Amino acid sequence: MRSTHRSIVIGALGAILVVGGAISAAAATTPQAAPTGVVPSQTTVAPTAPTATTNPTATPTATPTAPPTATPKPTEAPTEQQIKDLFKQWNDALATRDPKKVADRYAPDAVLLPTVSNKVRTDRDGIIDYFTHFLESRPSGTIKESKIKILGPTAAIDTGVYVFTLTKDGVESKVEARYTFVYELRDGKWLIVNHHSSAMPEK
């Protein structure tokens, strides 16, 4: 009888321990409400720094550009043959029958004292006008005598006598004249800056 009573007591005590453990575990996992009158603490958030914005009305800063590189000046003077070849280039321009191509052999500020005109030509338009009429006779020049003077790396003079063969209306004729070409090197190209041509005074 005592054994039975003891077993009952032990069983009841075990049930109490089990129930108590379950209650303790539930209490541990259940969040506890804050006591009345106590304000829960708040986490302080640091203020965010303002983000810089681009001003759409601001004038963009111009990027400086490098100055243009100047064309280096030549240090060596041209040869006489180089200057002689300039007449051939001019004569080849006559063969094109295009007055603009002939005018391309002259500097923009060149002066032309032509063979068969009394008017002095001092600009490109005037030079084109002269050769427009002169090329109608299909001229072809030949150097008879040439004297070349080298003035330096950028200038030279060719003076002498040339003979033009002219053909007009199927008739060929020749005109002998004295000439002076003054050449100047500009931007890497030899151009005529002065051209004087006049028929021989003695027949």
TrEMBL record:
Domain of life from the UniProt record: Bacteria
Gene3D superfamilies the record matches: 3.10.450.50
The keyword Signal belongs to this UniProt entry's keyword annotation: yes
GO function term, MF aspect, one: calcium/calmodulin-dependent protein kinase activity
Record domain Calcium/calmodulin-dependent protein kinase II association-domain: where: 80-201
UniProt xrefs under InterPro entries: Ca/CaM-dep_prot_kinase-assoc, NTF2-like_dom_sf, Steroid_delta5-4_isomerase
Region (Disordered) location: 31-80
Signal peptide (from-to): 1-27
Keywords: Signal
Comp. bias (Low complexity): 31-64
SUPFAM superfamilies: NTF2-like
Alphabetized NCBIfam families for the sequence: SgcJ/EcaC family oxidoreductase (TIGR02246)
Protein name, per record: DUF4440 domain-containing protein
Gene source species: Micromonospora craterilacus
